[in-house]
Amino acid sequence: MKNTLIAWLFCLPFASCTSSVTQMDLSGQWTVCLDSTDVGMDASFGGKLFDTSITLPGTTDEAHLGTKCTLKPALEKPQLLHLTRAYSYVDPAWYSREIQVPSDWEEKDCILHLERVLWDTQVWIDGQKVEGHEESLTTPHEYDLTPYIQPGKKQVLTVRVDNRKRYDMSVNDLAHAYTDATQVKWNGILGDMYIKAVEKTRIESLQLYPDVASRTVKAVVSVYNSSSQTAPVNLSLQVKGKDDSKSYASVEAQAEAVKGYSTVELTCQLGDNAPLWDEFNPYLYDASVELVSGKSTSLTTETFGLRDIRHEENKLVLNDKPIFLRGTLECCIFPLTGTPPTDEASWEKLYASAREYGMNHLRFHSWCPPEAAFNVADEMGFYVQVELPVWSVTLGKDFATVEFLRAEAKRISKEYGNNYSS
């Protein structure tokens, strides 16, 4: 249940702060078992270690697991129509490894983070099913492992990834979020993967709403309290230039965090001369919020730009100046891997190449790229348009598909909404 907290705001110098969040990297060697007959649930694969090894982040394609391609090189339709996977696999796969979280995480909550997965995941600790499942094609999959983790003890973490089609969101599977035309229907885990230790009372998310006319930014802070007791909290917001560290504003708030989710809002005045963001001057700010509750501290930083975009009849207007979008499609075309890159260097190269051709804009057709693509676009002043994973001629006929797409829209907005290149 969400509760809105009424906070007392006042301007104060911002104290230095440190984060209590620590994390354990999960990249490296895992074991894997392909489950093409879908017997793993009944056979209790959760909690088992398997004979075949795989490196994660990565895919079964890269590990040469699955059905090997038998097509011969030729200028014929099957070879030219779309990408052909060297090793194809579209069924559940189970990934397991041993973990041991530090013993000093005893008083923390433990959150599993998997940056990008195609399509459905479920998680086990020592054979015990973790509550819930995730199915986003566009945002990280996260699980609360707290009830299942025993700090200081070796345990087995198992992730079941099922890349079979779940919703009818695309004609002939052409939507680029789930297709073999450009990106392939890979099975695996990409990007950051870790377990993080967080405070019982913490910042769950930070959403920023800058306003050019008033030169302000409103911070909407989602506070989560996993304990059963209401906790008094002090929140501090500081806004600085991302590159020049120039201080623009700081405010503080006091509130009560009840059990579950609560929301507190803080608004900062940035000053009449606060720089705006556009392709010629992509000035960025860092907004840092620190939450102190008793002896625990939670810190979150998000980057944003100050810009206003609207239309005037047939013109797009950015910060009161007309802009012209010169762009092209980006259809998740990465043929060497069949997967989108999650590192910033790859996206810097892509945007720089587009800019060399005079472009200032990319449309991500029927898919949404990872976080690195947004961060680099913000920094380079490159306009991007992201889309839901849909390319359908029957949209609206299947209720489950519509609900999935609505949920995806909310997830995209929450995860990437502070990026002002989009």
Automatic annotation (TrEMBL):
Pfam families assigned: Glyco_hydro_2, Glyco_hydro_2_N
Keywords: Glycosidase, Hydrolase
GO terms for MF: hydrolase activity, hydrolyzing O-glycosyl compounds
BP GO terms, sorted: carbohydrate metabolic process
UniProt xrefs under Gene3D superfamilies: Galactose-binding domain-like, Glycosidases, Immunoglobulins
Sequence ranges assigned to domain Glycoside hydrolase family 2 immunoglobulin-like beta-sandwich in this UniProt record: 201-307
Database matches in SUPFAM superfamilies: (Trans)glycosidases, beta-Galactosidase/glucuronidase domain, Galactose-binding domain-like
Domain Glycosyl hydrolases family 2 sugar binding: 25-164
Family: Belongs to the glycosyl hydrolase 2 family.
Alphabetical list of PANTHER family matching this protein: BETA-GALACTOSIDASE
Full protein name: Glycoside hydrolase family 2
